[in-house]
Amino acid sequence: MIIILKKDFEERQMTNLTDWLKSNRLDVHVSKGVNQTILGLVGDTSTVDIDLIRGLDIVEDVKRIQEPFKNANRKFHPADTIVELPGGIKIGGGNFQFMAGPCSVESVEQICLIARKVKESGANILRGGAFKPRTSPYAFQGLRDQGIEFLLEAKRQTGLLLVTEIMDASQLPLFKEIDIIQVGARNMQNFELLKELSHLRKPILLKRGLANTLEELLMSAEYLLAGGNEQVILCERGIRTFETATRNTLDISAVPMLKFMSHLPVIVDPSHATGIARLVKPLSLASAAAGADGLIIEVHNNPPCALCDGKQSLTFETFNEVATAVRNILPHCCR
Ligand code: PEP
Ligand code: MN
Fold it and tell me: Is the pTM of this model over 0.85?
């Protein structure tokens, strides 16, 4: 349920109303916009008397929210959420970021070289997997703790921010200096992990599951928001369909649809969406045009020899070309 307040309400009146709502065991989220203040109610609102609230002096309107996601709902929070990172780097609300780097951290030399190169092309955030969710237990599983150390060395050398995937809450102590914690597609509905991450005050990059609906993605975001972590970035990374020509099918409509449903920033991963390096440029452009707030792209110093996902990884030259092409169209995109 949302309560829209009249423009000229007094602070004291609002406090009285929120205190009363809280005494009815409801959580109240205040969203103050330029033109409107909205109180979002979370909890069992079935007993709330809508007509009584509508009759109050300071209330303009009251609406029930049908969707099961509340905190993540655009109706609760009409303004775009802007995720703020160290160094004044922002994502969302018109701020676009490139996250780039290898699928997996392979050595300290490799990650530091890639960091320097993607930074030269305009990326502010370095990606690189240390803990890798692999389909086969015989495939390279990532350098794990050592991979995190190598990422931190790349951060020291270049000043780039870091995004890397967590697979289990027990790994959290290693993530202290990681700027954005990624929850991968396979863990999107690991609710216990989401609950742990909801207690942090650190941005979470939440990737859409291989076969999950947008509502399910937003319900997973809801776990993070409900625990008090408001810095959530959504990521469309392709879904399973009957098509086999590409690794997954990029659901480009997810970008404007998620932005309609939610206030959270939305980025796209064209690398995992297609599995084919050649398709990364057109889909990056399409994502930006559709209103994405950023891109996460796999880049490798020697793609044919990559330990993981070489076929979809861009060379430094191609990444530079993609980043330049995207920057050129950004002023014309529907954000
Ligand atoms: C990744 O980003 O390295 C990754 C494994 O992605 P996803 O969870 O989307 O498959
Ligand atoms: Mn990968």
Answer: yes
User: What region does 186 belong to: left with phi over 0, alpha with psi -120 to 50, or beta?
Assistant: alpha
- 128: Cβ contacts below 8 Å, ≥ 6 apart: 101, 102, 103, 104, 105, 111, 114, 147, 150, 151, 154, 162, 164
Rounded Cα distance between 268 and 241, Å, is: 18
* 195 to 17, 89, 198, 222, 234: CA distances (angstroms): 30, 26, 5, 10, 17
> In sequence order, what are the residues at sequence separation of 6 or more whose Cβ sits closer than 8 angstroms to the Cβ of residue 216?
188, 189, 209
Pairwise CA distance, residues 327 & 193, whole Å: 35
Residue 314: both structure tokens together:
């861009």
Q: What are phi and psi of 229, to 5 degrees?
A: -90, 110
Ligand 1 atom closest to Cα of 185?
A: 8
Element (H, E) at 253: none
pLDDT digits (tens, 9 = 90+) for 92-126: 999 999 999 999 999 999 999 999 999 999 999 99
What's residue 33's pLDDT?
Answer: 86
Mutate to test the pocket of ligand 1, among 272, 274, 280, 311 (most ligand atoms within 8 A of CB): 272
What residues have their beta carbon closer than 5 A to ion ligand 2?
A: 103, 309
The answer to whether 169 touches 176, Cβ cutoff 8 Å, is no
Give the closest residue to 103 by CA, choosing from 60, 68, 132: 132
pLDDT tens digit string along 263-306?
999 999 999 999 999 999 999 999 999 999 999 999 999 999 99
Token pair recorded at residue 77: 């929070």
